[in-house]
Amino acid sequence: MRRGAEIALTPSPEWLAELDAATLAGEARRQMAADPVLAAGTRRTNRSNLLFWAASNVRAPGEPVPANDTEAPLAVARDMIRRGLDESALDAYRVGESVAVRMWTQIACTLTDDPEELRELLDVSLRSIAAFVDDTVDAISARMRAERDELTRGTHAQRRETVALLIEGAPITRQRAESRLGYRLEATHTAAIVWTDSPDADPGQLDRAADALAEAAGQLRPLSVIASAATRWLWVHGRPDADRTRAALEHLPDVRAAVGSTAPGVDGFRRSHLDALTTQQMLTRLTSPSRLAFHHEVELVALLTADPERADRFVTRTLGALETAPPEITETLRVFIEEQCNATRAAARLFTHRNTLLRRLTRADQLLPRPLARNPIEVGTALKVLQWRGPR
């Protein structure tokens, strides 16, 4: 039992990938999988549960394992409630249990050739896993109930409820919504989602990022809603200046931001948020290293990469060997196309000599499957995907 638990303490990347895929698959868990913060929290919880059970059995093989009420699962419980999910979302724990049982059985079969000893090992260990998951789910359920009670009191709950009604297009008058939010809805709005992927990030960075976005739009403070412990939903009147926003985020290294479109009225309030959500999901789907994106910058890429595998095939087929060329080559060609194939403007934008730019363009054309002159739109589009996509 102890030897098996020691092996389980260092699970293979393939096992972890299978566990993550299973717990985020299916219609019942679609909202969790689509939300970057919930998905990241679920993956952290998977590792926490696996290591918690294994470490307990290294210390005391076969003894009852207490519920895992450490910070990782409790944080996910808080976030699920703040996203409007209920205890049915904990079905992911049961799915994870079935995957873990299969993995553990594979480990157990390598530990002994004695059928009777294997039978006893599996009997004890599988009972232990089942009891551990039951107790952990009970503990997390209790935490979710307490969190729900807390969130249904006070002004934050009122803001969340009002924002949800506006986003869903529910029948609430503009005057009543404005009164509850303390925010004018007739104006022009830009929504943003500010979040962190780091479990150890200072939550104050999210609030500072929200204030920075408001300042970049010439506002004193945004309308801010706590969507989860690691996420803020924001709205500002006007449009944040991109350069000022990027400069502010340089001082907040754990924060990422997705900025929506700019549009007037209640419809603009709703549409801008949905566009910010689309932008956030694209960054996560492409594992993009970018920490800030505006919807107008990525709208085409978001559409093209709704199916990541097909998008990857398009990029590879269109760019050929250029896909893996040095960044200065792909960046030069992308900027050249964006500047309507004007070498002088592209060189000025890249702060490089025109002759250097022409040499890079020649090299890029050599790497392309088809000459740029015969395929400029497809090449430019593929390079935009490459710009936002994470490393492969």
Write a concise synopsis of the structure shown.
Residues 175-281 form the CdaR GGDEF-like domain. The protein has 392 residues and is an alpha+beta fold. It has helices at 2-8, 13-23, 30-34, 36-59, 71-82, 91-108, 115-151, 154-168, 174-181, 204-216, 242-249, 265-285, 295-304, 308-319, 327-338, 343-350, 354-367, 376-388; strands spanning 188-195, 223-228, 231-237, 256-264, 292-294.
Write the layout of secondary structure elements.
Layout (H helix, E strand, L loop, with lengths): L1 H7 L4 H11 L6 H5 L1 H24 L11 H12 L8 H18 L6 H37 L2 H15 L5 H8 L6 E8 L8 H13 L6 E6 L2 E7 L4 H8 L6 E9 H21 L6 E3 H10 L3 H12 L7 H12 L4 H8 L3 H14 L8 H13 L4
Parallel strand pairs: 4-5
Antiparallel strand pairs: 1-3, 1-4, 2-3
Helix pairs in contact: 1-4, 2-4, 2-6, 4-5, 5-7, 6-7, 10-11, 12-13, 13-18, 14-18, 15-16, 15-17, 15-18, 16-17
Question: How much is the average pLDDT?
Answer: 90
Low-confidence stretches: none
CATH class of the largest domain: Mainly Alpha
Alpha-carbon distance between the two ends: 39 Å
Task: Please report the total strand number as a whole number.
Answer: 5
Oligomer: single chain
Order of helices and strands: HHHHHHHHHEHEEHEHEHHHHHH
Helix content class? 55-70%
- Largest β-sheet summary: 5 strands, mixed
> What fraction of residues sit in β-strands?
5-15%
Strand order of the largest sheet: 2-3-1-4-5
What would you note in describing this structure?
The chain folds into three domains: 2-151, Orthogonal Bundle (Globin-like), CATH 1.10.490; 186-303, Alpha-Beta Plaits (2-Layer Sandwich); 308-388, Arc Repressor Mutant, subunit A (Orthogonal Bundle), CATH 1.10.10. It is an alpha+beta fold and 392 residues long. The protein contains 18 helices and five strands. The protein starts with a helix and ends with a helix. Strands 2-3-1-4-5 form a five-stranded mixed β-sheet. Helices cover 63% and strands 8% of the residues. The longest helix has 37 residues, at 115-151. The model has no long low-confidence stretch (mean pLDDT 90). It has helices at residues 2-8, 13-23, 30-34, 36-59, 71-82, 91-108, 115-151, 154-168, 174-181, 204-216, 242-249, 265-285, 295-304, 308-319, 327-338, 343-350, 354-367, 376-388, and strands at 188-195, 223-228, 231-237, 256-264, 292-294. Helix 13 (295-304) crosses helix 18.
